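ugh ok fine here u go
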Amino acid sequence: MGRDTRSGASSAAAVVAAALLLAGCSAAENGGGGAEGEQDPVGLAACADAPDKRAMRGAWLTTVRNIDWPSETGLSADEQREELDGHLDAAAGLGLNAVFLQVRPTADAVYTSDLEPWARYLTGEQGGDPGYDPLEYAVRGAHERGLELHAWFNPYRIGFQDTDVSDLADGHPAVENPDWVVEYGDEAYFDPGDPEVRAWVTGVILDVVERYDVDGVHFDDYFYPYPKEGEDFDDDATWQAHGDGFDDRDDWRRENVNRLVADVHAGIEETEPWVSFGISPFGIWRNDDSDPEGSATAGLESYGAQHADTLAWIREGTVDYVTPQLYWYRGLGIADYEVLADWWSAQVAGTGVDLYIGQAAYKAGDEHWRGEDALSAQLDYSADLPGVVGDVYFSLGSLRGNAADAYGYLARTHYTRPVLPVATAPTGQEPLTGPVGGVAAASAGDGVEVSWEAAEGARFYAVYRLADAVGEDACAAVAPENLVGVTGGTALTDPAPAGAGAGYAVTALDDYRLEGPVGGVVAVDG
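structure:
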């Protein structure tokens, strides 16, 4: 179920990893040495894994309607890159470790694509070439800063009639396939009941997974559209053509969404199995007056309103994580944050599916969301619930704007030290990286410049500071409290002054974000 079903890397890579670990253990057993002053490599599989060493600390970066980025249409390539750099710098500075970039806002692309046109929010014209590849630039920039980059897709939404649908670019799939389109009030959607739509959307997503080094694929809460008074979603034609075997159209619609989710998950597993796949549904699955398995709430139900059966995805293992949008305050009668956090925690228990909670940073300053603890109050309750592996904030622009003070207080109370990203490997898989060589630490002003040689297969590096470089065993070196930071480069500046006898250790994280063996601890030079 969930992550336990991942196919893993190739057998050759596994053999290499095993050889590296065996070599490290053999050297330790025989007293063989590494570089002078270093310990022998020790595989971290032998170390107790601290439960609080890893977490998701993410934020959505929205492109639709230029909510977050770019700030407006028509900026030059340099101006867009400068703004994107600012967002990535801010994410790293805020102690986040993941950015969820919206790459397909309205069935168009914030990346180079032969399948769909450029998104209009880049240049102001759908199909307008921005002069560079934003996703490629974002992935590279995020990784350099030690951030994961998750590609966020809207699978079905084409957009509002004005101006999205009324001004589609030539070659847009809705133009090429008008029978795929269902108009719904002032919006338009691809019909989830059409198998051609499901195949198209899956192909678009896997095209990105194959061509870009993304860390994750992400859906938000847009499946069938949110209900609108007086409007019906006219899928009569596909219901007649493809509804055999279903007595109830709502059940058929849910199965259409389930099939897309399963197809995308299976395709990622076959293509790049270290890429995580998750969904951020509306925060209420069903109320308990509709279903005894539902939550003690009285709000809109995603199960019926959008035909999003999140419990089926969790139980069938077709997602690696869920990020329910719990955008309600603690104590709200019809949708209490505490009630829902407890409910979602119970649903993922024992499934292998991780739970990240979607947090409403955009509400900071509103009624019930005032004061320095406007955001931290949520984590005061949910941070230690079983199954909760972190949080994702909507949005990064809000964290830099209206929620800046509230997030600052949250960071001081909940994010007092860095964490590693959440691992995506199947249970029992060994790391695919070896020890990091050439580690050096030199005083640089009030801090320490730590550098090392690139390690084969490394996606990120973790840097640890020890109060005493002499006599530390490997497991003590990589304790959570010693983590200084994560980076994609081969150097990191620790701003803290080095105490007498201080030392550093560096480990490599592979594509699955598994941590490789410790090569040793080096003392600070100078």
